[in-house]
Amino acid sequence: LWCAAVTAFAQKQFQVDSHLQHNAADFPRGIPLILRPGPAVREAFTTFVDQLKLAAPGQYFYRPEEWHVTVLSIIPGSEHWQEKMPQLAAYQSCVEEVMKVCQPFSIRFRGVTASPAAVMIQGIPPDDALAQIRDGLRASLQRAGFGDQLDVRYKINTAHVTVMRFSHGNTNGKNLLALLAANRTTDFGAVNVAGLELIFGDWYASAESSLTVQAYKLPA
């Protein structure tokens, strides 16, 4: 992703998010299981994002209350989300089955990366605890007959936090690249994850549209 972004940004070939040109009510919706960074990490993110706003003014920036790591898209975001809602209880049962046996884990946020469409802060798990949760969820959902809906866009295996998307193509790519390169190894701190959230929301987890379906405390 980083290599593709370097080439794209240098040539001002940004992938503008077409959904951002529409009314927010038309955004695709879904139900992901997420984790949120703690206060100290959010403060460190804020310092970087403030600099990012100067380097790429007018782009779409996620707000602190929207920053999250997607553990797994339980119901992938789409324009057809309403068709899945009658089965919500069955999806929740799959998640609850896995949450009962999961343990708290940690993630360190170090460095930034990008794609031609977005800027992200990198999350680095120290072990395979997050991967085990994801694999457990996939297995549970497959047993329930929901396997064909998993990893629709790509198989998630990172722990990144998206902080910016391109809403227009009028940005100085060289200035943006310089800022990102300067923060490729910045340490934003670590978070000890003791709980996860199942949320209903749009593609961007916008604060206005997001609702907590269920909060899970990971058993010690």
Report on this model:
This protein is α+β, with helices and mostly antiparallel strands. Helices cover 29% and strands 29% of the residues. It contains 5 helices and 9 strands, in the order αβαββαββαβαβββ. Helix 3 packs across helix 4.
Brief rundown of the structure:
The chain has 220 residues and is an alpha+beta fold. It has helices spanning 2-10, 39-55, 88-99, 129-143, 173-182; strands at residues 29-35, 60-61, 69-78, 105-115, 118-124, 161-165, 187-193, 195-202, 211-217.
Strand order of the largest sheet: 2-6-5-4-7
Q: Percent helix among the residues? A: 25-40%
- Judging from the principal axes of the Cα atoms, what is the shape? globular
Q: Helix- and strand-based class?
A: alpha+beta
Q: How large is the count of helical segments?
A: 5
Q: Strand share of the residues?
A: 25-35%
Distance between the termini: 36 Å
Major pleated sheet: 5 strands, antiparallel
Task: Summarize the SSE layout with pairings.
Layout: H1 2-10, E1 29-35, H2 39-55, E2 60-61, E3 69-78, H3 88-99, E4 105-115, E5 118-124, H4 129-143, E6 161-165, H5 173-182, E7 187-193, E8 195-202, E9 211-217
Antiparallel strand pairs: 1-3, 1-8, 2-6, 4-5, 4-7, 5-6, 8-9
Helix pairs in contact: 1-5, 3-4
Which structural traits does this protein have?
220 residues, alpha+beta, 5-stranded antiparallel beta sheet, 4-stranded antiparallel beta sheet
